[in-house]
C-alpha cells in the first residue's frame, strides 16, 4: 500500500508513519522540515501545504492508495490539498477532533450523530476557533474529495512524543516529588487513548477503503485521575504525595481546568460531558486500546532522557502546567483549611 502522510514528523502523524512502515506501506511524508524529523524509510517531500506550487510538486507524478492528513486546521487550506490530490489517491483520511462537535463537552453523551459546528468548507482562519474550523475541514474533505472520505475524530490523545505537553507535564511534576496538587474527584472515569492505537485504527480503515466518520477515544472508564497519577508515580519511582483538592476550591482560586492542571475537567456545567463520548462505533469496526499503564510507561521511557529544561509543555495554542509558587500557595491554603491551627 502507498500512503501519503501530510505532516508526520511530531506526534500522532509520527505514530501513523511508524505504524504504516511497520505494516510495509510505502510512505511519503509532506511537511516543511521545521517541527520534527521524518522517520527513516519514508520518501520525504519538503513543502508548505499553504503553497499551491508545493502541493502541485507533491502531486506531480505520484499516486497513493491513501492520504492521511494529520495537520489540517483551516478549511480553505485543507480544500486546497483535497483538490491537489483528487485523482491521485483512493482515500483521504482526515484527522479531525471531537472538538468539531458543537455539543461537546455538553452534558449529553457525544457520538457520530451529534451535530458538528456550522462552518463552511472554504472558511478561513478568521472564521472560527479550533473546533469550528475542524468541522469546516471535515466538510472540505467530504464535499471536495472524489474518493473515500474517512473522518477520524479523536478525543484526548496521549502517548510517546506527545507535543501538547499534558502527560509530559504530569510525569515531570510527579517525578520532582513532594506534595503534588491533585485536582478534583480522584474517581472520575476518563477515556484516554494512545496515539499508536489511533494510528493503527486509521490505517486499517484506510487499507479497507472505508468512507465514514468515527469518534476515536479510549474505552469509557479506562482510567481515573487517581489511577493516572498513581501510574505516573510508579513509572517515575517518585515519592510524590498526592493532595486531592476539590473542584470548587481550585476554581475559586482561578486554576484553569484542562490546561493549568492538564486533563483536569471539574464537575461543572462547562465540562460535564468531557468524558461522555462513545467510541462504540470505532470499537465495533476494530479499534483496540492498550492499557493506559502502557501509555504512561512508554511516554516516560521517551521523556526521561530529555533534559527537563528542553521538555515542552504546550503549543502555540495553549500551554500546560501550574506555576510551582501558585501550586504551593494553593496546597498551603487547602491544608490550612482542612486542619485549622488549634485555637
Ligand atoms: N492532542 C490531542 O489530544 C488531539 C485531540 C484530538 C485531535 N487532535 C488532532 O490530532 C492531530 C495531531 O497532530 P500532530 O501534531 O500530532 O501531527 P504530526 O503530523 O505528528 O505533526 C504535525 C506535522 O504537520 C507539519 N506541518 C505543520 N504545518 C505545515 C504546513 N504548513 N505545511 C506542511 N506541513 C506542515 C509539521 O511539520 P513542519 O512544521 O516541519 O512543516 C509536522 O510534520 C491534529 O490534527 C489535532 O487537531 C489532537
Can you walk through the features of this model?
This is Reductase. InterPro entries: Epimerase_deHydtase, NAD(P)-bd_dom_sf. With 343 residues, the protein is α/β, with parallel strands linked by helices. It has two domains: 153 residues, Rossmann fold (3-Layer(aba) Sandwich), CATH 3.40.50.720; 118 residues, UDP-galactose 4-epimerase, domain 1 (Alpha-Beta Complex). The protein is 35% helix and 18% strand. The chain is built from eleven helices and 15 strands. It has a seven-stranded parallel β-sheet, with helices on both faces. It has a two-stranded parallel ribbon with strand order 7-10. Helix 3 links the parallel strand 4 and strand 5. It is globular, with a radius of gyration of 21 Å. The relative contact order is 0.13. The model has no long low-confidence stretch (mean pLDDT 95). The chain binds NADP nicotinamide-adenine-dinucleotide phosphate. The site of NADP nicotinamide-adenine-dinucleotide phosphate has 26 residues, from helix 1.
Q: What is the average of the pLDDT values?
A: 95
- What is the CATH topology of the largest domain? Rossmann fold
In CATH terms, the superfamily of the largest domain is: NAD(P)-binding Rossmann-like Domain
Task: Enumerate the spans where pLDDT stays under 50 for 5 or more consecutive residues.
Answer: none
Query: In the CATH hierarchy, what is the architecture of the largest domain at level 2?
Result: 3-Layer(aba) Sandwich
**SSE string, helix = H, strand = E?**
EHEEHEHEHEEHEEEHEEHEHEEHHH
Give the helix proportion (percent range): 25-40%
Number of strands: 15
* Total DSSP helices: 11
- Indicate the CATH class of the largest domain: Alpha Beta
- β-strand percent reads 15-25%
Strand order within the widest beta sheet: 3-2-1-4-5-6-11
Q: What coarse outline follows from CA principal-axis ratios? A: globular
Protein name: Reductase
Pfam families: Epimerase
Domain NAD-dependent epimerase/dehydratase: 4-207
Organism: Planobispora longispora
Amino acid at each position: 500500500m502507498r500512503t501519503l502522510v501530510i505532516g508526520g514528523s511530531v506526534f500522532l502523524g509520527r505514530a501513523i508513519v511508524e505504524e504504516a512502515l511497520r505494516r510495509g506501506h510505502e510512505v511519503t511524508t509532506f511537511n516543511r522540515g521545521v517541527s520534527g524529523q521524518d522517520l527513516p524509510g519514508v520518501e520525504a517531500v519538503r513543502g508548505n501545504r499553504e503553497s499551491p506550487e508545493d502541493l502541485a510538486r507533491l502531486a506531480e507524478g505520484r499516486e497513493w492508495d491513501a492520504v492521511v492528513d494529520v495537520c489540517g486546521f483551516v478549511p480553505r487550506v485543507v480544500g486546497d490539498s483535497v483538490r491537489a490530490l483528487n485523482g491521485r489517491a483512493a482515500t483521504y483520511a482526515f484527522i479531525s477532533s471531537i472538538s468539531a462537535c458543537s455539543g461537546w463537552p455538553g452534558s449529553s453523551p457525544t457520538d457520530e450523530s451529534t451535530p458538528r459546528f456550522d462552518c463552511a468548507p472554504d472558511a478561513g482562519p478568521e472564521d472560527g476557533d479550533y473546533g469550528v474550523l475542524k468541522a469546516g475541514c471535515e466538510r472540505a474533505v467530504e464535499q471536495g474529495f472524489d474518493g473515500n472520505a474517512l473522518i477520524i475524530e479523536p478525543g484526548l490523545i496521549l502517548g510517546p512524543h506527545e507535543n501538547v505537553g499534558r502527560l509530559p507535564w504530569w510525569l515531570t511534576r510527579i517525578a520532582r516529588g513532594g506534595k503534588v496538587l491533585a485536582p478534583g474527584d480522584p474517581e472520575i472515569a476518563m477515556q484516554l487513548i494512545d496515539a499508536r492505537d489511533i494510528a493503527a485504527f486509521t490505517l486499517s480503515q484506510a487499507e479497507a477503503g472505508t468512507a465514514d466518520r468515527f469518534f476515536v477515544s479510549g474505552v469509557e472508564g479506562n482510567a481515573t485521575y487517581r489511577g493516572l497519577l498513581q501510574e505516573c508515580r510508579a513509572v517515575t519511582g517518585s515519592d510524590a504525595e498526592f493532595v486531592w483538592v476539590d473542584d470548587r476550591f481550585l476554581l475559586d482560586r482561578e486554576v484553569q481546568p484542562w490546561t493549568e492542571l492538564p486533563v483536569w475537567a471539574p464537575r461543572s456545567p462547562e465540562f460535564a460531558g468531557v468524558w461522555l463520548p462513545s467510541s462504540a462505533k470505532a470499537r465495533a469496526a476494530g479499534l483496540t486500546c492498550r492499557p493506559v499503564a502502557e501509555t504512561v510507561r512508554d511516554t516516560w521511557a521517551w521523556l526521561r532522557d530529555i533534559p527537563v529544561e528542553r521538555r515542552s509543555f504546550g503549543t502555540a495554542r495553549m500551554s500546560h502546567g501550574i506555576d510551582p509558587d501558585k501550586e504551593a500557595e494553593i496546597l498551603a491554603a487547602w491544608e490550612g483549611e482542612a486542619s485549622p491551627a488549634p485555637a
